[in-house]
Write a structure and sequence with these properties.
The structure holds 2 protein chains of 2 kinds. In chain A, about 35% of the residues lie in helices and about 20% in strands. Chain B is globular, with a radius of gyration of 21 Å. Chain B is α/β, with parallel strands linked by helices. Classes of the chains: A alpha/beta, B alpha/beta.
């Protein structure tokens, strides 16, 4: 399922930095099994940005952890699938080999800048640590590189000898970014990097990630629940629900030619800043329990277009254009349109 | 024009710390009309939550007046305040931390009823009836009455918080970031619920949030706070169409719009928010402001009515009409 997504880019002979194929991750507990990720596939070319969008429990963070091969085990079990980062098969490498790749080829920015830094080590040393792991440099050379990295993210190099608590939230997140980028990785995973930050600081940090990405040619997986963040920096979007990708395409595909009922529901839930009188249309109900997913489409219980077929079987895949894929059985009927598409006067 | 329900004058809340005095809320004034929503928006540390708590005296203001239906609640005795608090309620941000994990939904929602002796604790039937009524009002299924908070998701927990606030049939509710901890699809459910309740019960809200698109959608008037002060206040449409304070302009330009190509050039601010400890008596935004001039180093700018209903505190923004009055 979904390997065609990978095939597309390979045909064009682009350099693939990340290939995720049919990834399945479950958390096996004594009494129940949490089905966090249930067969997702996507790939990413050098320098591109993909947004993994979805709500709590959609499986976004688990996907990122699996890419780093950092899923906590136990209880996490990668049941199926392959993950290739710059050609390395992440799920088959030894711990030592992984250590060489993490930080060098792929690194991660975490959501909470308050807890992801070590409070008793200076920020300069924390950046230098990652540099020394991967490059043959002396401590003082590495520390100087650390200062340069701080300057790059807009913090005076002289502050390298300070501790995390001496920085504000926005600055701590920049330190996290400096650590992640210290060895110039080809792939960066950012897990809600701006969610804990204030609006103006969020904008600063996003601008910075965007600039650095362009400068260094880093590919980026941006995990977020914020469609505004996606619109700002992503080239591709994968909308996730209950551990599956339900809609996948370019930013324009997903935002301007939305097809999946869940994606539509997300847009309808957002206040429209340009029209405040607009009534919010929430998605009724709740995300399904990941220990007890419905037999058919996971979104069926909340879907306004649901039919009996949706409840019975997994949704069918529809490749709408070269770049745009949806998983929704409603489109088995070629005349089907969601309301958002009717508003546009067509589904093209 | 509707009657003013709450009139706040020169509200101040200082916290003494070992490093100096934190000016959390520093001389703010505003009115809220009955049945309306005042949105208070600003970034972390701007004093918006402290303001919300002062309004119902969950924390004691340092000075200032809070006049509710003609009566200064700061002057009330404890027992009088206890009585009045039935009318003034609060909904908290974190539905995970604001509910007692050892109590069932029934106990949580019934608590204010029993505490205020609205219903006798012996009358189990009446308690359950009233709790079920409240649960229905906020969209909680009857079968959940004996569940504990940890069994429920964030959206349902927030509904419990709302039901608990409604138990006393309040007139005025402070909503302190009520949807910030929720997913977007659930956030919309709660926002719609709060709006319905306002329409049905004639509630007056103070809606505190950092989320500009939510505040825009939800409020009639919006006050923008920066480091303990209101820098701009206007009807929601006016504020979004015609922001006058340089900070408001920067804040609005930082909103990320979820549409392709909709994001405009962001106004970049220098530096970060200054310390609220013993701030110098000048414009608190001056150091970061792109329009800084000599004038800005002279005193804290007063909140002036620039056009009818639109108040701005900035040395650079002058009232357009010659007869403009000082902010009430």
């Amino acid at each position: 399922m979904g390997s065609e997504l990978n095939g597309q880019a390979a045909k064009d002979n682009k350099e693939l930095v990340l290939e995720v194929n049919n990834l399945v991750v479950h958390y096996v507990l004594q009494e129940e099994t949490v089905e966090a990720v249930n067969g997702i596939s996507f790939s990413l070319e050098k320098g591109k940005t993909i947004g993994l969008v979805g709500e709590t429990g959609a499986g976004k963070t688990t996907t990122a952890l699996a890419i780093m091969n950092l899923v906590p085990d136990p209880p996490g079990v990668i049941k199926d699938g392959t993950i290739k980062v710059c050609g390395y098969n992440m799920l088959e490498l030894s711990a030592r080999q992984l250590e060489k790749i993490r930080g060098k080829e792929v690194s991660m920015i975490f959501q909470d800048p308050m807890t992801s830094l070590n409070p008793v080590i200076t920020v300069g040393d924390q950046i230098a640590e990652s540099i020394m792991l991967h490059e043959k440099l002396t401590y003082s050379q590495a520390f100087n590189r650390a200062k340069e990295m701080l300057e790059m993210v807009g913090i005076p190099g002289a502050r390298a000898t300070e501790y995390p608590h001496q920085f504000s939230g926005g600055m701590r997140q920049r330190v996290g970014i400096a650590i992640a980028l210290a060895c110039n990785p080809k792939l960066l995973l950012a897990d809600e990097p701006t969610t804990a930050l204030d609006v103006t600081i969020q904008a600063q940090v996003l601008d910075m990630i965007d600039e650095l990405k362009r400068e260094l040619g880093t590919a980026l997986v941006m995990i977020t629940h914020d469609l505004g963040v996606v619109a700002k920096i992503c080239d591709l979007v994968a909308v996730m629900y209950a551990g599956r990708i339900v809609e996948y395409g370019t930013l324009e595909d997903v935002f301007d030619r939305t097809l999946h009922p869940y994606t539509e529901g997300l847009f309808n839930s957002l206040p429209d800043i340009r029209n405040r009188k607009n009534q919010l249309q929430p998605i009724p109900g709740l995300m399904p329990d990941p220990t007890n997913l419905p037999r058919g489409c996971s979104f069926a219980p909340r879907c306004r277009y649901v039919s009996d077929a949706c409840r019975e079987a997994q949704p069918t895949k529809h490749q709408v254009s070269e770049t745009h894929v949806i998983y929704c059985s409603a489109y088995d009927d070629s005349n089907f349109q969601i309301e958002r598409a009717r508003g546009r006067g067509g589904n093209g | 024009m509707a009657e003013v329900l709450l009139r706040v004058r020169n509200l101040v809340k200082y916290f003494k710390t070992s490093r100096g005095v934190v000016h959390a809320v520093d001389d703010i004034s505003f009115d809220i009309e009955e049945g309306k929503t005042l949105g208070i928006v600003g970034e972390s540390g701007c004093g918006k939550s402290t303001t919300g708590r002062c309004l119902i005296r969950l924390i004691e203001p340092t000075s200032g007046e809070i006049i509710y239906r003609g009566q200064d609640i700061c002057k009330l005795k404890r027992s009088e305040m206890k009585n009045l608090r039935k009318e003034m309620q609060i909904i908290f941000q974190d539905p995970y931390a604001s509910l007692n994990p050892r109590k069932t939904l029934l106990q949580i929602i019934a608590e204010p009823l029993l505490y205020n002796k609205i219903i006798s604790s012996r009358d189990k039937f009446a308690i359950e009836k009233r709790v079920l009524e409240l649960m229905e009002k906020v969209g909680l299924a009857e079968r959940l009455i004996n569940t504990y908070p940890h069994e429920l998701d964030g959206g349902r927990r927030q509904r419990i918080g709302i039901a608990r606030a409604l138990a006393m049939e309040p007139k005025f509710i402070v909503c302190d970031e009520p949807v910030s901890a929720l997913d977007v699809s659930i956030q919309a459910q709660i926002l719609n619920l709060l709006k319905e309740l306002q329409r049905d019960l004639g509630l007056t809200y103070v809606f505190i949030t950092h989320d500009l698109s939510v505040v825009n959608h939800f409020s009639d008037d919006i006050a923008v706070m920066y480091l303990g002060q209101i820098v701009e206040k206007a009807p929601a449409d006016e504020l979004f169409e015609n922001p006058l304070h340089p900070y408001t302009q920067a804040l609005l330009s930082a909103i990320l719009i979820p549409a392709v190509g909709a994001n405009r050039e962001r106004i970049k601010l220098r530096g970060e928010v200054a310390s609220p400890i013993d701030p110098p008596p000048v414009c608190r935004f001056a150091k970061r402001c792109n329009y800084y001039s000599q004038e800005c180093a002279h005193g804290v700018p007063p909140l002036l009515e620039i056009t009818p209903g639109h108040f701005v505190a900035c040395h650079q923004v002058k009232p357009v009409a010659p007869s403009a009055t000082k902010a009430n």
